[in-house]
Write a structure and sequence with these properties.
- The chain is α+β, with helices and mostly antiparallel strands and 379 residues long.
- It folds into 3 domains: 87 residues, DnaJ domain (Helix Hairpins, Orthogonal Bundle); 177 residues, HSP40/DNAj peptide-binding domain (Sandwich), CATH 2.60.260.20; 93 residues, Urease metallochaperone UreE, N-terminal domain (HSP40/DNAj peptide-binding domain, Sandwich).
- The chain has 8 helices and 16 strands.
- The strands form 6 sheets. The protein has a 4-stranded mixed β-sheet with strand order 1-2-10-9. The chain has a 4-stranded mixed β-sheet with strand order 11-12-16-15. Strands 3-8 form a two-stranded antiparallel sheet.
- Strand 13 and strand 14 form a beta hairpin.
- It starts with 5 loop residues before the first helix and ends in a 16-residue tail after the last helix.
- About 11% of the residues have low confidence.
């Protein structure tokens, strides 16, 4: 059976924003999640289809490839092959009430410059939790990239028990709370959902003689400093993953990751649309009428010569190629668009006034102008 277009699956347009894509997926995930539809193969397939679509369209690079080459361009990239991948397979993460760690990572967040914990799918025994770090960066750093240092707290393996959680000679026994199952069930509205056992953290066992240093947790809270490279061309909301910098695992489990969520500050003079940059530059009436060569300052503080054609109208857009935002993994850049603003003087000298009056007599002023068709207006 042929695959449906990913935009069609999520019920969004091809120009949908990240938030619109996110909302479209969240609606379908709640509706068709297997925990809500046990034994319903059709609902399961729809959930997998929606998850696959979201994985591609929420990734800037994969979405760009899909838009240009379709399904064929995604072959061999991972994702786009069905299954749950990093889907949200525990319905408890959708219904709230303290269950929303995963969806908090996708749909919510903490304040800028801080980290918070978030799970990566099903909680396997001993696996460390991932951390979210909200990082605010400047517009210029988002365009050209930057190396920055992050300081945050995470859990490291206890130095006394080396992550086992037990004192010397300690052993593990079956957890009496969950009877070794590693999870307990809890009612949430109309649904009965499972969650990791609070007594054993999902491992199914407890330690008979806990480590006195870490209290049996196997980890200790430590402050960590790392340097990360923010690549050129990132946009607001972009997520970067630093493997292994989340909370340490226990009993030999793998550590979680550090998920960096970027928040780009606005710039005073420049704005961005995709890979293109936009700015506005004032010119005089005489420059607009006669034409001129002016110098403008780019986002990276270079001076570039710009030729103003004679007869330039207010609001005209000029383009400088390859002066925009770099494309990911490419030497290509977008373009820089300059909007020209013709500034009419509010005060003029007597000599200038006489010259303007002379021009008016020569040109013959039209005191009864006809409306201009809207189709002729420039953006």
């Amino acid at each position: 059976m042929a695959k449906r277009d990913y935009y069609e699956v999520l019920g969004v347009s091809k120009t949908a924003t990240k938030d619109e894509i996110k909302k479209g997926y969240r609606k379908l995930a709640v509706q068709y999640h297997p925990d809500k539809n046990p034994g319903d193969k059709e609902a399961e397939n729809k959930f997998k289809e929606a998850t696959e679509a979201y994985e591609i369209l929420s990734d800037e690079q994969k979405r760009q490839i899909y838009d240009q080459y379709g399904f064929a361009g995604l072959e061999g990239m991972g994702g786009g092959g069905g299954g749950y991948s990093h889907a949200y397979t525990d319905f408890s993460d959708l219904v709230g009430g303290g269950f929303g760690d995963i969806f908090e990572n996708l749909f919510g967040g903490s304040g800028f410059g801080g980290s918070s914990r978030t799970r990566r799918g099903g909680r396997s025994s001993g696996q460390g939790e991932s951390l979210r770090y909200d990082l605010e960066i400047s517009f210029k750093d988002a365009v050209y990239g930057v190396v920055t240092e992050l300081s945050f707290q995470h859990k490291e393996a206890c130095e006394s028990c080396h992550g086992t959680g037990g004192a010397k000679g300690a052993s593990r026994k079956t957890c009496p709370t969950c009877q070794g199952m590693g999870e307990v069930r809890r009612s949430a509205g109309f649904f009965s959902v499972s969650q990791p056992c609070p007594a054993c953290s999902g491992s199914g066992t407890v330690i008979d003689n806990p480590c006195p240093t870490c209290g049996g947790k196997g980890t200790q809270q430590k402050r960590c400093k790392i340097k990360v490279t923010i690549p050129a061309g990132v946009d607001n909301g972009k997520r970067l993953t630093v493997s292994g910098q989340g909370d340490a695992g226990t009993n030999g489990g793998q550590p979680g990751d550090l998920i960096i969520v970027l928040h780009v500050k606005n710039h005073k003079f420049f704005e961005r649309s995709g890979q293109d940059l936009y700015c506005a530059v004032p010119i005089s009436v005489t420059q607009a009428v006669l034409g001129a060569e002016i110098f403008i300052t780019t986002l990276d503080d270079r001076k570039i010569k710009l030729k103003i054609p004679a007869g330039t109208q207010h609001g005209k857009l000029l383009r400088l190629k390859e002066e925009g935002v770099p494309y990911a993994n490419s030497s290509r850049k977008g373009d820089l668009y300059i909007k020209l603003l013709v500034k009419v003087p509010t005060k003029v000298s007597n000599k200038a006034k006489s010259l303007y009056e002379e021009i008016a007599r020569i040109e013959g002023e039209n005191n009864s102008p006809s409306p201009t068709p809207l189709s002729e207006l420039e953006n």
